[in-house]
Amino acid sequence: MNYLNMFSLEGKNAWVTGASYGIGFNIAKAFAEAGIKNIVFNDINEELLQRGLANYKEAGIENVHGYVCDVTNEDQVKATVEKIHQEVGQIDILVNNAGIIKRIPMHEMKRSEFQQVIDIDLVGPFICASAVLPEMMERREGKIINICSMMSELGRETVSAYAAAKGGLKMLTRNICSEYGEYNIQCNGIGPGYIATPQTAPLRERQADGSRHPFDSFIVAKTPAGRWLNPEELGGPAVFLASKASDAVNGHILYVDGGILAYIGKQPK
Ligand code: NAP
Ligand code: GCO
């Protein structure tokens, strides 16, 4: 057996949701390096989509197809899947990456704000996975990767909706595995630690006096690696979970966190 070949994505098409930039974009880039035939991504409006397409062009990735589609809108998702079938081909790999966070103390959070996070981070993956499962079942082959979080396991102040959604996404991952494993469909999660992307930029902003944001120092101390991770570092794990190399891995959440979940924290000096 040639083990390196098992990681190849040659001949496959992948749809990475919300991948104009950030983690999704970097996963798409890694897929391109692993030989993927086509990358598909979506964003919520034409302007953002064009910005995403420009990012791919700049990275020298040519086999990219972008669609305007909100992952919370069932009709748009269905129409997008149909267009992908007509214009690109079958969907071999789905990465549920699109997500938002709202940092608001729970007792001050409006129901509508809580609901919006649940809709994008949990209901969106349900809608997108439901839309691709039938073709995967028919072919008896498919890979679904859900982007989970530290908050699939841990809580913290102000992120109640996000933690509820990402905890739910972990269990949705296990359930898709349970329900569709017999069709040779693997559904796994990636649980990124603290990654330097626009989503976490407010937590890394320099203070007025030029010192580090207290949350920035907190994360560095909380991570055995002693640093924030880069979105590129999710590429290898994503290629693994998208490829034949992981055909026997199902319902697993692969935490890519620099060791946060293993660590009790730095002892005070
Ligand atoms: P990001 O930089 O904010 O990117 C999120 C992407 O999702 C954006 O492209 C955004 O599009 C898109 N999106 C948001 N709502 C959408 C919707 N309704 N339909 C379609 N696309 C939508 O975030 P990121 O840090 O790369 O995070 C990507 C995923 O990883 C998220 O699920 C996030 O929760 C998760 N995650 C992030 C971290 C971290 O430390 N950064 C850690 C663990 C997990 P536009 O903004 O262009 O509209
Ligand atoms: C926060 C962060 C996190 C990360 C990530 C951790 O405010 O604590 O935004 O939730 O984005 O999901 O894995």
Computed CA radius of gyration, to the nearest angstrom: 18 Å
Give the % helix: 40-55%
End-to-end span in angstroms? 51 Å
The CATH homologous superfamily of the largest domain is called NAD(P)-binding Rossmann-like Domain
Question: Could you give a short account of the major beta sheet?
Answer: 7 strands, parallel
Strand % is 5-15%
How many separate domains? 2
What's the shape? Answer: globular
Low-confidence stretches: none
Characteristic terms for this protein:
seven-stranded parallel β-sheet; alpha/beta; binds D-gluconic acid; 8 helices; 269 residues; binds NADP nicotinamide-adenine-dinucleotide phosphate; single chain; 2 domains; Rossmann fold
The gist of it:
With 269 residues, the protein is α/β, with parallel strands linked by helices. The chain has 8 helices and 7 strands, in the order βαβαβαβαβαβαααβ. It has a 7-stranded parallel β-sheet with strand order 3-2-1-4-5-6-7, sandwiched between helices.
Structural overview:
By secondary structure, the protein is an alpha/beta fold. It has two domains: 4-193 and 229-262, NAD(P)-binding Rossmann-like Domain (Rossmann fold), CATH 3.40.50.720; 194-228, no CATH class. The protein has helices at 22-33, 46-58, 74-87, 111-139, 160-180, 201-204, 214-222, 235-242; strands spanning 13-16, 38-43, 64-68, 93-96, 142-147, 185-192, 253-256. A seven-stranded parallel beta sheet has the order 3-2-1-4-5-6-7, with helices on both faces. Bound molecules: NADP nicotinamide-adenine-dinucleotide phosphate and D-gluconic acid. NADP nicotinamide-adenine-dinucleotide phosphate is lined by residues 17-18, 20-24, 42-44, 48, 70-72, 97-100, 120, 147, 149, 192, 194-195, 197-200.
